[in-house]
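FORM 12-B: Structure-to-Sequence Request
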């Protein structure tokens, strides 16, 4: 999913960790199917409530491996979430997706910045 340009105030809040998520969901430890289903549920709730920032905990991304035969278990949710968001029913409600500040999980979490309702 491409990273949209946000205004300076948003960028500063993300960089300093002063952003306050309106909602959060922890997908870490779920199967891919359960994580996808839960993400869709929480995203629908966030859009319905007019939330602006959804914190999604995915777990840390999988380290790069040169072995194509190594099983892909760790970081599987993180690897799929971009496609889930881009192809999901709420893709048009998403303004940007960013890696979370360390206080909110760092590389193991994402901020989903939602567009304002019109």
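FORM 12-B RESPONSE
SEQUENCE OUT:
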């Amino acid at each position: 999913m491409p990273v949209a340009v946000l205004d300076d105030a948003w960028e500063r809040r993300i960089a300093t960790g002063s952003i306050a998520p309106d909602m959060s969901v922890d997908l870490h430890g779920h199967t891919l199917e359960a994580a996808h289903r839960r993400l869709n549920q929480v995203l629908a709730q966030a859009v319905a409530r007019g939330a602006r920032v959804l914190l999604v905990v995915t777990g840390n991304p999988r380290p790069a491996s040169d072995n194509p035969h190594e099983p892909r278990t760790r970081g599987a949710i993180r690897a799929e979430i971009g496609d889930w968001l881009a192809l999901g029913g709420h893709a048009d409600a998403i303004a940007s997706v960013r890696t979370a500040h360390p206080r909110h999980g760092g590389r193991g979490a994402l901020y989903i910045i939602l567009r304002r309702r019109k």
